[in-house]
Amino acid sequence: MITVFGEGRGFRVVWLLEEMGLPYRLRPVDLLAGVEKDPEFLAINPAGFIPAIRDGDVTMVESIAIMEYLMARYGPTPLAPAPHDPAFPAYQQFLHLGEAGLAASVYFVVGARNFAPESERQNWSADQALDVFQTRLGLVTRQLARTPYLAGEMFTAADISVTYALELAQHGAGIALGETEKAYIARTSARASYQRAMATCESRKAWFARTPAQ
Questions:
Q1: Which residues contact residue 85 at a Cβ distance below 8 angstroms, ignoring those fewer than 6 apart?
Q2: Between 10-20 and 157-173, two packed helices, what is the crossing angle to 10 degrees?
Q3: DSSP 8-state secondary structure symbol assigned to residue 46
Q4: Strands (E), 87-193
Q5: Which positions fall inside the GST N-terminal domain (predicted)?
Q6: What's the average model confidence in pLDDT over 165-190?
């Protein structure tokens, strides 16, 4: 049984597990209460961030690395095109862009807009992070003008990666996306696996209810 520790980016992992039909359990981690009060979790990830997984003797952190591990360990799966597949370069690019270019930058915008003192919410670093997000978003918009999914005609793990980042921008930073991105999220979030993941991730579901997308 695979244990997923924490929601947040752990939603990517839960969604992937639902897509692959793998058994798992979600173990909540309350970052706001303080991970110092959660020794079981700190034994899994002493750095104290989420998500993490435990799979037998394996423990891992970093959502994209976890996704790649699960697809390699329990695949093959159409969620990860093979290296010789023409879809592979786009898949690889957007799988990582979803974190490195989109979620990682907008994360700091979310922090500034929601948790910083009022006088610091429009600080230079947050504006720079927003600019990074917007430039990378242009790559997503261009690709979606060509194909329904980021690697082409088929849904892949790259779409899990990027959908998470776009929803973080909408619900966490109040960023209004264009019609192309909204239609894309409507496609990916309509999947039964996404709906099951949302039902499992109760904190995420409640957060979405409190912060409707622009």
A1: 91
A2: 140
A3: T
A4: none
A5: 1-78
A6: 97
